[in-house]
Amino acid sequence: MKDVLSHLERLESDAIHIFREAVAEGSRPVLLFSAGKDSTVLAHLALRAFYPARPPFPLLHIDSTWEFRAVLEFRDRFARQHGFEVIAVANEEGRAAGLNPFDHGDAYTHVMRTEPLKKALNTGQYDIIFGGARRDEEKSRAKERIFSIRSAAHSWDPKQQRPELWTLYNTRLAQGQTARVYPLSNWTEHDIWNYIIVKGIDLVPLYYSRERPVVERRGRFIVIDDEARMRWRGVERVVHRKVRFRTLGCWPVTGAIESEAMDAQGVLAEMLVASTSEREGRVSDAEEGGSLEQKKREGYF
To answer: pTM for the whole thing?
Structure first.
C-alpha cells in the first residue's frame, strides 16, 4: 500500500477536501466556469470530489459577448459530456448598446463581466462560489485566502480576510456575505499542466499551437476570431502564424504567443523556460482594464 502521496496527489486531495468542506457548510454553491484550463481542471476535481454522484452545483459562465467561438463550443460540449447544468449569463443591455473591448476598456469589463456576475449571483442566491484562481497568477491573487469573504455587494477587501492557519478554514458567513472559494489556490501553472497530462484532460484547442490568422498589435498577436467584428487600426494586415494561448479572455484583448507546442507535453516544455507571466497576454489587465485588484474590489472574478 502506498503511504506517501505525490505532490500532485496531495494537491488533488486538498482540493477535494476544500470542495467537500465548502459544500457541507454552504447552502447554494456554484462553480464559475470560463472554459479555460484552470476552470476545466477545477470542474474535473469537482467530479472526483463527489463521485459517483454528480457535483451538487451548476456551472456559471459569464458570456462577455466577445468570447472565442471555440470556448463556447467547448463549454457546451464539456457540460453535455459530464452532466453539468450550465447557466450562461450575458448583459443584453450592454450588448444592445454596443459595448466592446476595443472602444470601452474598463467600462466594458465592468458592465459586461462584473455586473452580470453580481446579478447572476444575487438571482441564484449563491453563497459559495467556486473559482479557479491561483496565487501564482498575479500579485493581487496572492492576497487571496482559499475562502475569500465578500460583502453583500460582492466587494473584496483584502484587509478583512480571515487567517487560514494549519489549513483550517473559517466558513461562517454573516448575513449577506458570500465566499469565493479557490481549491486551486496553492497550485501553480506547472502543476495545472502536469495534472492535465497525468489525467488526460481535454482542453479548448486554443491552448495548443496551430496556424491562425493574427494581427500584431502592441507587441502581441491578436487572433482574428470574427473578422466582421474586428476593429482595424491604420494599415494593419492579417498574417498567419503558429500561435497558442497561455490564458484566455475576450478575443480582441488576449494576446497569443508564437509556439510549436501542439500538445500538453509540448506546452509544459515551453512553459518551463518561459520568462513571462501567463497573464501578460491579457491586454485588459495592464493597458485597457486597469488594476486587477481594483476590479476584484468591485466584484470581479
So the answer is: 0.90
Is it true that the peptide bond before 29 is cis, omega within 30 degrees of 0?
Answer: no
Residue corresponding to grid cell 470601452: 104
Cell of 6: 505525490
Rounded CA-CA distance 146/139 in Å is 15
- For 262, phi and psi rounded to 5 degrees? -105, 5
pLDDT mean by block of 10 residues, the chain; 301 residues: 80 97 95 97 98 96 96 97 96 93 89 94 96 83 83 83 80 89 94 97 97 90 93 88 94 93 95 72 50 58 62
- The per-residue DSSP string of 120-178 comes to HHHHHT-SEEE----TTS-TTGGG--SEEEE-TT----GGGPPP-GGG-------TT-E
Reference 202, options 73, 55, 111; nearest CA is 73
Q: Hey, what domains does the chain have and what are their CATH numbers?
A: 7-190+291-297 (3.40.50.620), 203-288 (no CATH)
